[in-house]
Design a protein that fits this description.
The chain has 4 helices and no strands. The protein is mainly α. The chain is globular.
Length: about 80
């Protein structure tokens, strides 16, 4: 962009709001397994960007990572 953009830093709430819009927007255009993988990845990213983490956050982070690891094979299957 020649003149640049003046994007502000996103907060966790902004990211979570984007996820609520992005996932429904792609649901009819990509395989369901891909939607699940992206959702798990975004959940993981949302959790790790928190300024503090407790045991419940760590468990949720582990769960999101496990879910992503289960679903990520779709990207290889469709050669992305």
């Amino acid at each position: 962009l020649p003149q640049g953009r003046r994007f502000k830093q996103w907060t966790g709430n902004d990211s979570k709001a984007l996820m609520k819009v992005f996932l429904p927007a792609i649901v009819h255009y990509v395989p369901n397994q891909m939607v699940q993988a992206i959702a798990a990845f975004l959940d993981f990213c949302y959790i790790v960007h928190q300024s503090t983490l407790d045991e419940a956050d760590l468990a949720a982070m582990e769960n999101a990572l496990s879910h992503f690891e289960t679903e990520h094979t779709i990207f290889e299957e469709v050669q992305i």
